[in-house]
Amino acid sequence: MRLKKMTDLGLKQFTKYLSELRAGKNSEYPKFILEDDEYSEPYGSEAIEVVEKKFETKLEMLQEIDNILKNPNRKDVDSDTHLWAWLSLFYFESIVKKDKNGNIALESTNISYIPEITIWNRYYKHKILGPYLIYKMHQDHLEDTYPLLKTRPDQMGEFMGNVMGRQSMVSNKTIIKLLKKLYWDEKNESLKKGASSRIGKSGSSAGSGSISRLGVYLKQLDMTYDLHSIPLEKLLELLPKEYNKFKYKTSLF
């Protein structure tokens, strides 16, 4: 199939399809949106073929998409809502949530599939564009992005949201290295247990050493240190004792 982008009518049809799924209707996958010229138009002057695949990780998917989009004549790729909506439908089988019985279980809003480009705290929640921005920022050291990108394409989750919701974190190469050092289990190729725990109410210890608490602590450190130039070893030294369980253990399972 040729790479395309949705027309406004295509976006409306895609929105309708998502609404029907959310309402519990057994709607047929609308492949016509991807192919029909009324609903999608060619993206760029050069015809590029895309192949239907199901990916195991975000990183696999993003490498495929980056190869597709590598063309210096294409401008403003990151801000093209119609392109990312088309890609969402094309790779829908990889990015859509399903319950334990294999039934589609959509999020409460459409921003996981149709990006809201102008609003950062919603922009990054798109399941392809959000991770793609991380991929582009850190493509020279992708191994450091494993806690964010070597995870299932259908999952965004608490860990991803905490990092992407803070631009000062997601754009900082040292902090990205810190996340891998603290939270990535090399042996099991997964996040360590407790990495995504939320901060407990009324000062409880729930979430001790988790990503949500790290974001708060780094914000405090940023008032004293230049977190863009600080060495990783120094940053590790500055972390309080609650992070020791992540610093010194490969696996918490």
The helix content is 40-55%
Morphology call:
elongated
Spatial strand order of the main sheet: 1-2
The biggest beta sheet is recorded as: 2 strands, antiparallel
Query: How many helices?
Result: 14
User: Which structural class best describes the helix and strand composition?
Assistant: mainly alpha
E-strand count = 4
User: How many angstroms does the end-to-end distance come to?
Assistant: 43 Å
Share of β-strand residues: under 5%
Low-confidence stretches: 200-206
What order do the helices and strands follow? EHHEHHHHHHHHHEEHHH
Q: Mean pLDDT across all residues, rounded?
A: 89
Q: Which value, in Å, is the CA radius of gyration?
A: 20 Å
What does this molecule look like?
The chain is 43% helix and 4% strand. A two-stranded antiparallel ribbon has the order 1-2. The protein is mostly helical and 253 residues long. The chain has 14 helices and four strands. The longest helix has 15 residues, at 8-22. The protein starts with a strand and ends in a 6-residue tail after the last helix.
Sum this structure up briefly:
The protein is mainly α and 253 residues long. 43% of the residues lie in helices and 4% in strands.
SSE diagram, text form:
Elements: E1 4-6, H1 8-22, H2 31-35, E2 40-42, H3 58-69, H4 81-90, H5 92-95, H6 120-123, H7 129-137, H8 146-149, H9 157-164, H10 167-170, H11 173-183, E3 184-185, E4 190-191, H12 211-221, H13 232-238, H14 244-247
